[in-house]
Write a structure and sequence with these properties.
Elements (H helix, E strand, L loop, with lengths): L5 H17 L3 E9 L7 H7 L6 E10 L18 H13 L5 E8 L3 H7 L19 H31 L5 E6 L2 E3 L6 H7 L16 E4 L12 E4 H9 L1 H10 L7 H11 L4 E4 L6 E3 L1 E2 L6 E2 L2 H4 L17 H5 L11 H12 L3 H10 L2
Parallel strand pairs: 1-2, 1-4, 2-3, 6-8
Antiparallel strand pairs: 4-7, 5-9, 6-7, 10-11
Length: 365
């Protein structure tokens, strides 16, 4: 027989659990992309262990691959793995010692015909899914299908986050979105991005010099917004990642698609009356890595650390403390444009922007 007080006990227990859930900032970490580009220990070592007061929940959403072969890399994670192995590996890695919640799922990648069906093109529609609608460039079309698939993975990841929130009846404070190939130059502290996001306004309000809705790094933005680290409050994250494919279709129909993913993401942000705030790579030390058979298990391509075509200060995208380390991690034969490093920090010293002052003080601690 159940005691009469039992429902009351459950009620007070739920209050205690909710109170505990409110202690510390709650982060939903969304990692999306091909599994074979994933660098598995990066977030654990550089994000989770360096922010002990935060509560992390990881949502890995990988693009499914048809029956891939299994082989091992030096960084201890098979570069192509079965679904069952990936679930076991990720659960062991992220939950055994760190008490992080982890969810993983695979989503089928779409090809050109899938996307035509998705956008409800008629069978006789000759239009191509490239960034320049009048172009017949098959390479552009293939690249664009890849970033459409990345938006689809982000949307699926967002659905998993919201479903989890409903299940536990607690909302996250912040979302952070990473591609699967994210590499950290050094551990990151989330205190500065959190502080930056305090200077924000709600959706659809007018622009302001001090608005900050999405935090990214300030270099290698390729004319738009960097996508290897995007952090925002929950209330901004949901409309951003839920509407990217819909916004893509609107630009496609208007034949106004920008040339690259970074420019598209910035236009999309502005269409929602939201603003990015880009801060130094010293504070957002994240770029794209390539799994490699080296001691570190990773190498860095030129476009991950510098723009090979430009000589502006922000075209060099390596933290000051990481230059020596990066020299040993380069893929291929190219030289770091280290002369840009001096220009970059001269530019920072000459700036009167208050955010730069905050960043400099953080670096000198």
């Amino acid at each position: 027989m159940v005691p009469r007080s039992f429902p009351l006990i459950l009620f007070f227990l739920s209050l205690v659990l909710r109170s505990l859930a409110r202690e510390g900032n709650k982060f939903a970490i969304c990692v999306t992309g091909p599994l074979d580009s994933w660098l598995p220990k990066q977030h654990l070592v550089n994000l989770v262990q360096n922010n002990p007061d935060a509560h992390f929940s990881f949502f890995f959403t990988f693009q499914a691959q048809p029956s891939p072969p299994l082989h091992q890399n030096n960084h201890s994670m098979p570069s192509r793995v079965s679904t069952n192995f990936a679930i076991h590996y990720i659960s062991e890695l992220y939950t055994t010692d760190n008490s992080a919640f982890v969810e993983l799922r695979f989503v089928k990648g779409y090809d050109l015909n899938d996307w035509k069906r998705f956008f409800r093109f008629t069978p006789d529609d000759s239009r191509k899914l490239d960034r320049i609608p009048t172009s017949n460039n098959s390479e552009l079309e293939a690249a664009n299908i890849n970033f459409l698939n990345s938006f689809r993975l982000q949307q699926a990841c967002l659905q998993d986050i919201v479903s989890y929130e409903r299940e536990v009846n607690v909302n996250f404070d912040y979302f952070i979105f990473f591609p699967s190939d994210a590499f950290y130059f050094h551990p990151i502290s989330l205190s500065v991005p959190i502080e930056m996001l305090k200077h924000q306004r709600t959706l659809k309000q007018s622009y302001s010099k001090h608005v900050c809705n999405v935090v990214t790094k300030d270099c290698l933005e390729w004319g738009g917004m960097g996508h290897h680290f995007q952090m925002m409050h929950r209330k901004e994250g949901i409309p951003i990642y839920a509407s990217r494919l819909r916004y893509y279709r609107s630009l496609y129909d208007a034949q106004t698609l920008p040339f690259n993913k970074e420019s598209f993401e910035l236009l999309h942000l502005q269409s929602l009356k939201l603003e990015k705030c880009a801060i130094s790579v010293d504070l957002i030390p994240v770029t794209a890595g390539v799994p490699a058979s080296t001691k570190e298990g990773v190498c860095l391509t030129e476009v991950a650390v510098q723009n090979p075509f430009q000589l502006l200060p922000n075209d060099f995208c390596v933290p000051l403390v990481s230059v020596k380390q990066v020299r040993s991690l380069l893929c291929g034969n190219f030289e770091l444009k280290e002369e840009l490093l001096l220009k970059k920090y001269e530019h920072l010293l000459q700036s009167n922007d208050s955010s730069v002052s905050k960043n400099s003080s953080e670096l000198n601690r």
